[in-house]
Amino acid sequence: MNAPSLALVVVVVALVAVGVYLLLERSLTRVIIGLVLTGNGVNLLLLVAGGKAGGPPLTGQTPPEDMSDPLPQAMVLTAIVITLGMTAFLLAMAYRSWQLTGHDEVQDDLEDRRVARRAALDRAAYEDVDAGTEPESLDEAAAEVHDETGDVGGRS
C-alpha cells in the first residue's frame, strides 16, 4: 500500500487548522470562510484516505485489484452538496444581520454576559482576599452590577 503524499497531508492540516481558527471568530463572514476551508480540508482528507487512483470500478472492464474505491468519491460529492447548502444558509444569515445591524458580528447573549460578570465578581473577591482587605459578599458586589437588559446581580 502506498503512503499518501506528504504535501497533501500538509495541505489537509493547514486547511483544517485555518478553518477551525476562523470558525471560532465572531464575524459570520469569517465563520463562512472557516466552514468552507474546513469542508475542503476534510474532503481532501477523504480522497487521500481513499487510496491510490485506479481504473473505473466496472466489473469486466478493470481487474478487481486495479479498481479505485468509489465510496470516498461519493462521500466527497455528498459533502460538497451539504457544504454548499450550509454556506448558502450562513450567507443569508450574514446578509440579514448586516441589513439589520450594519455588521455581521455575533453578539453575546444574556447568559454569556451573566457568566462573564460572575467570573469577574469571583476574581475581584479573591483579589480582595489576597490583598488582605475584607471581601464584600458576592451578593453585595453583584447588586451593584447592572447591564443593559435591566438584570441586577446576575441572577435570573
Automatic annotation (TrEMBL):
<keyword id="KW-1003">Cell membrane</keyword>
<comment type="similarity">
    <text>Belongs to the CPA3 antiporters (TC 2.A.63) subunit C family.</text>
</comment>
<feature type="transmembrane region" description="Helical">
    <location>
        <begin position="71"/>
        <end position="95"/>
    </location>
</feature>
<feature type="transmembrane region" description="Helical">
    <location>
        <begin position="31"/>
        <end position="51"/>
    </location>
</feature>
<dbReference type="InterPro" id="IPR039428">
    <property type="entry name" value="NUOK/Mnh_C1-like"/>
</dbReference>
<feature type="transmembrane region" description="Helical">
    <location>
        <begin position="6"/>
        <end position="24"/>
    </location>
</feature>
<dbReference type="InterPro" id="IPR050601">
    <property type="entry name" value="CPA3_antiporter_subunitC"/>
</dbReference>
<keyword id="KW-1133">Transmembrane helix</keyword>
<protein>
    <submittedName>
        <fullName>Na(+)/H(+) antiporter subunit C</fullName>
    </submittedName>
</protein>
<keyword id="KW-0472">Membrane</keyword>
<dbReference type="Pfam" id="PF00420">
    <property type="entry name" value="Oxidored_q2"/>
</dbReference>
<feature type="region of interest" description="Disordered">
    <location>
        <begin position="126"/>
        <end position="156"/>
    </location>
</feature>
<keyword id="KW-0812">Transmembrane</keyword>
<feature type="compositionally biased region" description="Acidic residues">
    <location>
        <begin position="127"/>
        <end position="142"/>
    </location>
</feature>
